[in-house]
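2 proteins. here.
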Amino acid sequence: MDILALSTDYQTNTLMGDINIALMSKAKEQMEVNADNLQKMLEASVTPNLGKNFDVYL
C-alpha cells in the first residue's frame, strides 16, 4: 500500500469512530431522558390511599 491509501484508510476509520461515538452519546442521552420520564410517571401513578376505603350501598 502506498502512503496515500494508508492515510485515506486512517482518516476513514477515524471518521467512522467519531460518528459511532457521537451516535452512542446521543443514544445514551435519549435513554437517560426516557428513564427520567418513566420514573416521573411511576411516581405520579402512586396514590397511597387508593383502595383503602370503599362505599357500600344497600
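next one coming up
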Amino acid sequence: MRKNSQLMKLFIVLLICTAFIFSSSHFGAYAFEKSQKSSGKYIKGTSIGSLLIEGKSQFEASEFLQKKYADWIKNTTIFFQYGDNRTPIDLKLFHLDQVKTIDMIKNGQKTPVSIDIDSNKMAQQISLLFPQISSKDFAIDKLSKKMIEMASSLRSGNYTLNLFDEYLKTETNGIVSKTTMKIAGDSQELQLFLTSNSKIEIPAQSNFSLLDFLKNQKLEGISPETLSFIATAIYNVVLPTNFSINERDIGNTLPPYADLGFEAKLDPKQNLDLAFYNPNKGNYFLELNADKNNLMVSLTGGEFPYTYKMTATGIAHFAPKKIIQYSPILSPGQIKVTTVGVFGHYVKVYKDEYLGDAKMNQELVSEDYYSPVPTVEIHPLNSTSSESITTTSTLQTQQETQSSNIVQSSPTSSTQSDTTNESGTNGN
C-alpha cells in the first residue's frame, strides 16, 4: 500500500512538470507575439513575396522592400521571344506600389508585392521590339498578368516569355499552306488512296514518313507514279512552312506534273521516301481532295511565327547529246530514232523567312540536277565513208562531237504557277 502511494505521488509530480513546460512554451510564445506587436515588429513567418521581414518594423520593412525591388530590377532580365528573335524588354514598365504593399502586410503570413504594369506601354514596347507585327495580335492583358506574377516574387534571374506560343491571338484550325495540281496518271489509284486517307494527321513535335504511313495503311500496291504524284503535292504544301524536310528524292527525269525544284519521288521498292518533322506544339492535318481534273492539298493548323516564300534560282537547261549508230539493215536515207532525247535541268531552291515585310533568313532547301538523256538515231551503213567502215561489223556506233551545252538559263525564277508556295497566314 505504501509502495502504491509513492508511485502516485511520482505520477502527480511528473504531470505537474509536464503541464508547466507545455504552458510555458505556449503562453511564452503568445507573450512574445504580443510583445512583438506592441513593439511594432513583425512576427516570425511574415514575408513580402519571397522577402522575410520578421523582426522588422513597418519603416524597416518599407526600406527593405525598396532596396530588394531595386536589386531585382538590376539583376533581372526579361526577354520577349518571337520565333528566333529574343529581345530584352525595358523593366521600367513595372511600377512598385510600396505603400499599398506595406498596408496589406499581415503578421505571420505571406503578402504579395503590389506591382502594376502599364498595358499601353507594354503594347508600345512590343511594337518597338517587333515593328513587323502588330501588338493588337497579342493578348496584352494575359501577358501583363504573367509579368506581374513574375515580378511580385522579387526573385532575380533571366526569364523568357514566348509571345508566339503563349500570347498570340491565333486561329487553331486555319489553312496555313495549300496547293493544286493537275491530275496525272491513274485517277482510279488516286481515288483509292483518297478514299481512306483524305485527312492525315501530323502530330506535334514528331517525325512523319509517308512511306511508313503507306505501309501502315497497306497501300504499297499503288503504282510508284501515282505515289510520286501524291508525294509531290504534299511536298509542295509542307515546303513553305517551318517543317523541316528529313528525306526527299527525285527521279532521273522531271515528270510533267512537277515544276523544276519541287518534285518528290516515292517508291516503296526502291525505299524512296518523303519524310519531314513538325517542330510545333500543335498537331497539323494534311487534307486531300480531288475533282475530275485536279488534286487539292492543304495543311491546316496553327499559324506560324513567320511566313515563308520559296524561290527557285540558277535555273539552267542542258541540251541532249545525239548518238548516231549505223546498221546495214536500213535502206539508204532511212533514219530510225530509238531514243528521243530529253533536256537536262538544274535548279537551286531557297526558303525565304519573313517577319511581316522584313526578310529574316534564307535557307538553301535543295539543289536538283537532272542529267540530259541523249537522242539515239540509227543511220544506214552506206551513209558513212568507206574508209570509216569495218566490213566485218554489222552495227557501228558514232557519237557526234556536239556536247551537252547549256542552252537556256535563268538567274532567278519565282515558284510554281500552279502551286501556292507561301505560308504562315491562315486562309480559307
